[in-house]
Amino acid sequence: MAKSETQPVNKPVVPSPPAKPRMTELEVLIRARYPLLYVISWEEQRVLAHVNQIGTKLNKTVFEWSVNTGLVPSGTNLQSQKHRDAATEDPLVALGNVIEHVEPALYVFKDFHPFLKCQNMSVIRRLREVASSLKNTYKTIVIVSPMLEVPPELEKDVTIVDFDLPRANDFTALLHRIIEEVKSNPKLKVNINSTMKEQIVHALLGLTLAEAENVLAKTLVQHHGFGAESLEVINGEKKQIIRKSGLLEYYETDESLETVGGLAALKSWLLKRAVAFSDQARAYGLPAPKGVLLLGVQGCGKSLMAKTISNIWRLPLLRFDVGRVFGSLVGSSEQNTRRAIQVAESVAPVVFWIDEIDKAFRGSRGSGASTDAGTSSRVFSTFLTWMSEKKSAVFVIATANDISALPPELLRKGRFDEIFFVDLPASQERQDIFRVHLAKRKIEPGKFTLETLAGASEGYSGAEIEEAIISSMFDAFYDKQELTSKRLLESLRQTVPLSKTMRESIEELRQWSVGRARPAAGPETGTEKQGQRKIEI
Fold first, then answer.
1. In what helix (H) or strand (E) does residue 466 lie, and over which residues does it extend?
2. How many CB atoms neighbour CB 460 within 10 A?
3. DSSP 8-state symbol, 85
4. For labelling, which of 150, 216, 361, 404 has a CA lying 20 to 30 Å from the CA of 71?
């Protein structure tokens, strides 16, 4: 029987061609024959290794230059005098040799920026001549430096390339290599599970490969293996990086959820996002949390929660001091802001804390921008752009007391994941605050009638309750007696809370928060209403 015309015909399966490996930006620019490339990176050897890979792929010879070795073939030993020409230690001579060489090649110039920073017109002029000469050749100059120095004369000839820090797979390979090297040593415990490996790799993000290798060796020496202690050692290494920047403050804190009274809704929100930095969260499709803005009454725990987050999530806490960022030179403040952001991103995942952001960027709104030549506005614009576009796992937590000083651009969706309003503590929260602060000072809370103390402290902030406890402790210590509820009540009666001193401002803040911010304390209201009649039905 003849085959029907509609009957499907089995066709041979043709295997799809393997996907081509994705080219890096540096390789693309070299293939496109850009003459002068400027790679910004601290990892000189890693950049050099990458250039050697590109040279092998494109069949090009790789040379490297430094002020000590001159122009030599890549990989030349420092002690070797072969291939070394002392005359090429002079950058002008070395650049002249680049022009004279005929064969396709890549030239890596290390730490060349001082010759550009000093406005050495001979070197700058020669670089312009080299750029013009190399356009019709298969040669490329790659300048590698940790800092950017491009004189105006070279802006149109030089192409800037940012060389990214190592990624998770790079650190995974490094960790596996170190484990293989030391696993036979009976004194070291390196047999760790996949969860601990993931935590160590994530903690290493933001370091260079050399820094990561050093800190992993350090934890082997200190703790004879890898484990939870390794995370503390790695965070200590990141602390050194932050200190060197001079723009951010690494905050050591031992606060935990148990040391914070009240704020149940905010605590719950943070706990649900504690797992957001894991690989499982990425696989599930969850992005890293962007940040949270805490508005509210002074002394009610906003800064305390910022310190607590780093312990909940086991991440470093960086405090961004805007006052330190502002410099006396025009343009330095914007540059300092970018540097602070770069440092934070380099040690991500991290918690980035801006305390009292309303005061920090007060000059960016209204006429204040004109009093500092617009510096505040430019710094604020840089910060806002970064918050909207950042891809790194930097969680921004900002606190504010005066909502009227906040620019509206900061409050729009997309800058923060959530805006919480931190009100004065309610009755049960005040009991929790008394319990926390008494226990912190090694005083048994069960000896006190917390309900009575909470009733007497209506309208008090957490900071005011703490100060009342400390004041009564001074009195008791002076009289050589134990602390009692009577002394606490007397101390509370002598204190005039901020809720009375600034009643109008606080009420205005509360009215603004309705429908605009989420209550940090959950469904319970901040304070009891004054003079409300109590009836039974």
1. helix 462-478
2. 26
3. -
4. 150
